[in-house]
Amino acid sequence: MKTLSPLEIGLIVGAVVVLISAGLFAYLKLLRKKDPAEIERLRRSWLGRTGRIVAGEITGLIEPEGENTALLLVYRYDIAGVTYEVTQDVSTLPAVASQAPHLVGKGISVKYDMKHPSNSIAICEDWSGIRGLSAGESEGQGAPANSTRATEKA
Question: Which helix H or strand E contains 48, and what residues bound it?
Fold first, then answer.
């Protein structure tokens, strides 16, 4: 039986340490769960970069009541004969939250996911579809509050 030299032993130990470290890093990375606010921020950011633009209109505002602290902007847009009515939580986007009562009835640009048209935004940290409000003015994390109701046009 051949004995291993100190160099060979060092290489084997080093390789084992690297493999264990890589496995531990991958395991911890998979276990780390993002909080809902971070997931929503990432969704808005992705749509802000990749979404297709369509015209829409702000149709209402749902103000916070009781324990619900979300300020929901209600907007509508049409794609391929389907009308989507969506809400977006804008309570953590200060520029929009302060102007929200004055936005009802105004035309906007909406960015939506072409594969899932109900997935949309009217504003995010990097882009604004609301005329007169720059995206740079709106900061915050946001909570997941984008809900949709689609109706077929007659």
Answer: helix 36-50
Closest of 4, 150, 133 to residue 84, by C-alpha: 150
pLDDT at 144 over 50: no
Number of domains in the chain: 2
51 and 63 share one domain: yes
Closest CA to 146 of 116, 121, 115: 121
Q: Using DSSP, how many helices (H) and how many strands (E) does the chain show?
A: 3, 6
Q: Residue written as tokens 């030299």?
A: 5
Q: Return the higher-pLDDT residue of 127 and 34.
A: 127
Q: What whole-number distance in Å separates Cα of residue 120 and Cα of residue 146?
A: 8
Which residue has 């946001």 as its token pair?
142
Task: Give the chain's length.
Answer: 154
Are 89 and 144 contained in the same domain?
yes
Q: What is the pLDDT of residues 38-85, one digit of tens each?
A: 888 999 999 999 999 999 999 999 988 888 788 899 999 999 999 999
